[in-house]
Amino acid sequence: MRLDKWLWAARFYKTRQLANEAIENGRVKIDGARVKPAREVKPGDRLELRVGESDWTLTVRVLSMQRGPAPQARTLYEEDADSRVRRERAQAEHRLVTNPAAAIKGRPTKRDRRQIHRFTGE
């Protein structure tokens, strides 16, 4: 089975095209080596992949030709314990850190503009 198709079936990427791009950009490795999207994947292969901000280290357990529901997709692989701990710790840290730019939406209001002018002295 092709690697890009398996990543799509295991629900790591929404489309096969996104899986292809991730593989070609070096975000997916099998046994520590960069691979091509058409690489055959088999049970027992060890994958290292980066999805967004998350790093995953997992072992392929089952091959599936179809994309199924999420609970079924989780049975296709087994994540390493240390990978799970690192990923959960990173998610917890990400939740604690707030991005100040996230609260800013669009143009400043009249009140915001007045505060900006008071602060900058214009």
CA-CA gap between termini: 65 Å
Helix content: 25-40%
Largest sheet: 5 strands, antiparallel
* CATH-level-4 superfamily name: RNA-binding S4 domain
Strand content: 15-25%
Q: What is the residue-averaged pLDDT?
A: 91
User: What topology, given as strand order, has the largest sheet?
Assistant: 2-1-3-4-5
In total, the number of strands is 5
CATH topology: Structural Genomics Hypothetical 15.5 Kd Protein In mrcA-pckA Intergenic Region, Chain A
The helix tally amounts to: 5
Radius of gyration: 21 Å
What's the structural domain tally? Answer: 1
**What general form does the structure show?**
elongated
Unreliable stretches covering 5 or more consecutive residues: none
- What is the CATH domain class? Alpha Beta
Give the SSE string.
HHEEEEHEHH
SSE diagram, text form:
Elements: H1 3-9, H2 16-24, E1 28-30, E2 33-34, E3 46-51, E4 54-60, H3 70-73, E5 77-79, H4 81-96, H5 110-120
Antiparallel strand pairs: 1-2, 1-3, 3-4, 4-5
Helix pairs in contact: 1-2
Short summary:
This protein is an alpha+beta fold and 122 residues long.
Protein model, in words:
With 122 residues, the chain is α+β, with helices and mostly antiparallel strands. The protein has one domain (3-97): RNA-binding S4 domain (Structural Genomics Hypothetical 15.5 Kd Protein In mrcA-pckA Intergenic Region, Chain A, Roll), CATH 3.10.290. The protein is built from five helices and five strands, in the order H-H-E-E-E-E-H-E-H-H. The protein has a five-stranded antiparallel β-sheet with strand order 2-1-3-4-5. The mean pLDDT is 91.
